[in-house]
Write a structure and sequence with these properties.
By secondary structure, this protein is of the alpha/beta class. The protein has 11 helices and 5 strands. The protein has helices at about 15-30, 40-50, 60-75, 75-90, 100-105, 140-145, 180-195, 210-220, 240-260, 265-280, 290-305; strands spanning about 125-135, 150-160, 165-175, 200-205, 220-225. Helix 4 (about 75-90) crosses helix 5 (about 100-105). It is elongated.
């Protein structure tokens, strides 16, 4: 027998398309923003104050500008040197820089994720998930044909379901499980949101574990973790999970989904899709620590992009 299809809610697009289009256009301004010139001398004076050894020649805001181009456009370091050389001819205030210097400074660039999050006083609903980033731009055929497996980088993120901002991120290798990073991502999100409360957390069945329900219960956060179909109402070790399992069984999936507005979880999937479309599905670095750093920058720069006003 064919399963009866459940009626689907008609989605209504209520976006202000004029404002939305303008926001997308303004993102392009960041690609050639020369704001770092306004603070060039002040930054260098601050960096070089009491510095022992060779003095800095380039401020961090300039390095951030170059790494943004490197990540967003996938421009290799040598080509990036040529880009700056040509830019310095057009804008004399910009000083040429060699690719080695870009690489050395760029792989140490530290951007505080909290500074890329828009301020708000409203409680937030967050969605958590993980996804893999390739460590090489190899095709599936090559991997299968030559039995070459270089592994993955795994990115764990917490996303504001309303604004689609990343408010927590951890980057690990492929062997780290989702549940292991659940608490670190939650705590990072709390720190980045400062005084703003997390109202609810939405996750798929991969996070259905006693510890995760206990973590949310201790923090007074509503759990929107999807319960596995074979979960037993006699579950032991976590009274909080037992309560949610019983509710899930009583309501059935459709009513449970509507009660917790589980459809908001799609926001985290959209973020992964957007970051990979914009910055690519792989990293170009060869050292492990630089791979993790590059993957981190992909997602931090995404936050900067979507908050362009």
């Amino acid at each position: 027998m064919s399963q009866k299809m459940l009626p689907q809610k008609k989605w209504i697009d209520n976006r202000d398309w004029v404002a939305y289009n303008e926001k997308l256009v303004k993102r392009g301004e960041l690609l050639l923003s020369l704001d770092f010139l306004d603070t060039w001398d002040q930054e260098l004076n601050s960096l070089n104050q009491n510095k022992v050894g060779r003095r800095y020649q380039y401020p961090w805001t300039f390095i951030k500008f170059l790494m943004f181009i490197h990540i967003i456009f996938g421009l290799p370091y040598r080509q990036l040197e040529g880009f700056v050389r040509r830019l310095s001819e057009l804008v004399p205030q910009v000083k040429p820089i060699d690719y080695t210097n870009i690489w050395k400074r760029g792989t140490k660039l530290d951007i505080d994720l909290a500074e890329t999050i828009a301020e708000s006083d409203e409680p937030v609903v967050i969605a958590i998930d993980s996804s893999g980033i390739k460590v090489a731009n190899r095709g599936d055929w090559i991997r299968e044909e030559w039995d070459v497996h270089r592994g993955w980088i795994k990115v764990h993120i917490a996303v504001n379901a309303e604004t689609k901002e990343i408010i927590g991120i951890e980057v690990t290798d492929e062997h780290v499980g989702d549940c292991t990073m659940f608490e670190p991502v939650i705590e990072q999100a709390e720190n980045n949101l400062k005084d703003v409360d997390i109202e609810k957390v939405l996750d798929d069945g991969a996070y259905d574990a006693n510890d995760n329900f206990d973590i949310l219960n201790n923090k007074n956060i509503v759990s929107g973790i999807k319960i596995r179909q074979n979960a037993s109402t006699e579950t032991k070790g976590s009274p909080s999970r037992k309560k949610y399992v019983k509710e899930f069984k009583d309501l059935k999936y459709t009513q449970w989904r509507d009660k917790y507005d589980y459809g908001q979880r799609w926001a985290v999937e959209c973020v992964f899709s957007a970051v990979k479309r914009i910055t690519g599905e792989f990293v170009t670095a060869s050292k492990t620590e630089n791979m993790l750093h590059e993957a981190m920058l992909k997602f931090v720069f995404y936050n900067i992009l979507i908050n362009m006003t």
